Amino acid sequence: IKDRGIIVKNLQNNKTAFINIEKFTEYTQDKILPLLKQIPGDELFAMKELNLKAFALNNKTSNAAFSPSSNSIMFNEKYLDLGVALHEWGHGKDNLAFSEIGQEICEDPVLNNIYKEEKEAFRKYFSDAQLEHIGYFAADYHYLGGKKAIKEGIAETNTILNICPKNDTQSVRSHYWQQYFPRTIAYLSSLLN
Description:
mainly alpha, 3-stranded mixed β-sheet
């Protein structure tokens, strides 16, 4: 941290990225800076490269959300958690990848075939109680509409690839996601990194 910003250096190619803390945290750095310090450097670098605009506090948000219209992640103060931040950043990567590769990650046909196979196998062999734990990822329809429950899997994979989730809700979801969707995660790891 230097000159009101975070400097991130990629040791493989010696490129650097500067994140202006005051702009990026919308002048709430006292609350958000401790969270930013926990984020892996390559994720901070990707945030800069993909032009994420801000981490913002917004207590009108029920928990946390990535906003495509503002290219920012908004948090209710109760959800300032590293796992939540990386999950929402996974949504950001999915959305912002559109400008890089011409389609959202969730539209990848190979990904969708792998995901569909694993989802059908999971749903065939497990009880409704177990399905409830992973319904977030295995539903037929995404809560925002359309057949994009895979969006939650993309976001959760971004978390898993960076940390071991510590909050209870995420830990149970992540456990099921890792155990029963390994091919989906393996394919996503190349797309997210």
